[in-house]
Every structure is written in structure tokens, then in C-alpha cells.
Amino acid sequence: MPQQDGQPGLQRHWDARYAKLGQRVSWFQSVPTMSLDLLHSRGADATASLLDVGGGSAALVDALVADGWQDLAVLDISPVALQAARARLPRSPVDWIVADLLHWWPQRRYDWWHDRAVFHFLAAEQERQLYRERLAAAVRPGGYAILATFAPDGPEACSGLPVCRYDPADLAVQAAPGFSLIESRRQVHVTPSGGEQAFTWVVLRAPERRQ
User: Fold this and answer.
1) What is the pLDDT of residues 168-182, one digit of tens each?
2) pTM of the entire structure?
3) Is residue 2 part of a domain?
4) What CA dihedral angle connects 185, 190, 195 and 197, to 10 degrees?
């Protein structure tokens, strides 16, 4: 599928957020405990490949590099965010991808897709369909996707943008129909400013054979 132009206004929005707040953005975690726990619960190790969509300047990639992972990619619309992460890991084996996820197409498949707080920004059905297509194309048969969104009692907006909120069953159906929901968890994230945000987490497994 050909590459498409992204949304310059959206890139400017996120560049401005990261430039202004850095690691004080509300979703920042110094240690991505839930992500790591869910990876380990499925037996993921350093031989696996992982794509972190909307990874920005998040610390998951730091933890995985420290654990010896060699096949990692981080995709984000904001070059400002990716530069911050890249500066922490100047010699790491990470593929840094500056792209609008909905206007990008995977050139390969991964064992793991990781998305903490991208999907809940997709308010339009057309946007969700584009996301589903990319997720399905990027995950190998039998591979996994970890997704986190705001829970039904979570915030109704984030970073000046409206969000959709999900319980585990709805999130699985909306994000990856055809995948199996194999684990779900709830997390109350404490923001850098001390606020609380309720998240829904799911682990989904791709079918062994694609239709």
C-alpha cells in the first residue's frame, strides 16, 4: 500500500505538547510496569520483535533495550518526541519511524504490537478502520497486540483532544476484530502532576492463519 500524507496540524499539536512538557506529559511513566508485566506474562523475551505505536518519548523502549531486545521499532507522529527518546539511546538497535499511524503502512510483520493511549484518540469510525487495517497487517499470524485506552470511568479528554473510553470487550472488538482477547487488566495511572487516570489494558492474539 502506498504511503500517504499525514496531518500537519496534528503533528504540530503533539510536537508542541512534547516541546512544552517533556516528561511531564500526563501519560508519562518512568517505569512502564504494566506493559512489561503483560509482555512477560505471555513469555515474550529478547528474541521477539516489537512495534510501539505512538511510543513518543516513552520509556518502554529503554527497558526493552536494557533487557537485550534487538528488534524494536517506535512509531510516532512527533519528531520532537522521538528525538527525545533517541537521545537517550544513541547507539541502540531501534528503528525510529516518524509517521502518522493512519497514513503509514507496515513494511514487515512483528511479534508484538504495543499501543498505550493512541487508539482512544480515534473518534471517527473511518479512523478506527484505518487503525485496524494497519494492526492486522503489522502483526504476524499468532502474534500479539497490547493496547491501553482510558477506561469507562477515565478522562473524557486528553491533551486538549476528546477521547473514546472502553471496557475490555469493546476495546478488543473495536481495535482488532478477529483477534482473541486473552487477558485484560485495569490500571489507575498516577500522572506526573498527581492526578489519577483509569486505563483498560488488553492482550489480543492474532489468528494463526489469516483469511
Assistant:
1) 999 999 999 999 999
2) 0.89
3) no
4) -20
